[in-house]
Amino acid sequence: MSDLPFTLDQLRILKAIAVEGSFKRAADSLYVSQPAVSLQVQNLERQLDVPLFDRGGRRAQLTEAGHLLLSYGEKILTLCQETCRAIEDLQNLQGGTLIVGASQTTGTYLLPRMIGMFRQKYSDVAVQLHVHSTRRTAWSVANGQVDLAIIGGEIPGELAESLEIIPYAEDELALILPVLHPFAKLETIQKEDLYKLQFIALDSQSTIRKVIDQVLARNDIDARRFKFEMELNSIEAIKNAVQSGLGAAFVSTSAIAKELQMGVLHRAPIEGVVVKRTLWLIFNPNRYRSKAAEAFSQEILPQFATPGWNQDVLKSSPKNIVVTTLDIAMPSSD
Fold first, then answer.
1. Which tens digits make up the pLDDT trace of 168-217?
2. Are 99 and 65 in contact (CB under 8 A)?
3. Which stretches within 128-276 are classed as H helix?
């Protein structure tokens, strides 16, 4: 085959169908008609002479050939995006894009403040914030889909050699109580008092819940002995439940600043215990780093970091390198 048997548009359509699960939803996400999507897929299958989708089920399922093409297609599209961003950088921050990743807590309460400061100075730069699980965010950074990320969970071991992983800040986890709880009248509570409380927490399988349990264990607090009143799926829901008098919870101090100022939650110090976790800054040193990412790293990150963090790692790592191949493949499950 002297000519490529596919176009970038066809790869984009293939990826959209895989993500959305149907030709119709893929067409809607790309703002084209469903017949146009179907025609492009038919042309692609004819050019490659292989079926890319199993047509039997209700959801569009990729064949083995479809999975293979999608794997390489995502790498091609990522490199195309890097190329466009490198060209945009010639305008010296008069445009361009910054893509920042975060896990749930940092993405909800920390990154918006950082991005707000960055946008005040560089209003022409388009900023995207991708908030997902620590695992998914780490893979996105490794694959070059995200410039850098701040996360609080455990990074997949298979990515340790692909990413630069820097201790960035200490995030204190505070015990919060309803303001009318009897313990709210005490200056401090004892560790043993924790086992008398009714707790509200995230789902036991959530990354944040596991991190909190691990940090508590390092402070000789056994979360398995806690009495759990309910499990909720967001920090905001937990704060509202505590505020309503339904129980106690451990949450990041960054998530409760407004509530403490308004006096609708009580922060209860624990005698002799400060519960903290490490937030990590991650980036791929072998991917192209845009001028927008450089500016964010040098001007915004230091303002929120724990004093003494290793900012020199950012300065000494390879810069502005375009990698022509990408050997990391995102796992199928998150």
1. 999 999 999 999 999 999 999 999 999 999 999 988 878 778 888 888 89
2. no
3. 134-142, 207-218, 235-243, 257-262
